[in-house]
Amino acid sequence: MKRIKRKYLILLVVWLGLILTGSCSTKKVGLTANQSKSQSADSLQIKNDPLIKDEQMAVALAEPILFRRFGKKHILRQKPYRVKQINNYWIIQGYLPAGSDGGVFEITLDGNDGKIIKIMHGQ
């Protein structure tokens, strides 16, 4: 009889210990399916605050890429650049005076995130 009481006493102590430490908690942790979908949609939503706001910023982002790809001296000789915005894309082109030999660069950047959409150089 003493042995049985002792077993129950040990089980009771272990059970109370689990409850007090929260190991047997029935509270669910995490997000519901709707909360998860809402949070994912919010993080993927395109904001109305584009990264590239003006011509100066577009050129500042494009130049280091162009310098590395085609050479700094070569790109700087194509100033003044022609910069235009179509929808939320920035198109930056080099300039050569009439009668000059060679081609010019062209780079297109996504205004929302600055990604390069197109980069090329004419012959």
From TrEMBL:
Domain NTF2 fold: 57-123
PROSITE patterns cross-referenced by the UniProt entry: PROKAR_LIPOPROTEIN
Designated name of the protein: NTF2 fold domain-containing protein
Organism from which the protein derives: Rhodocytophaga rosea
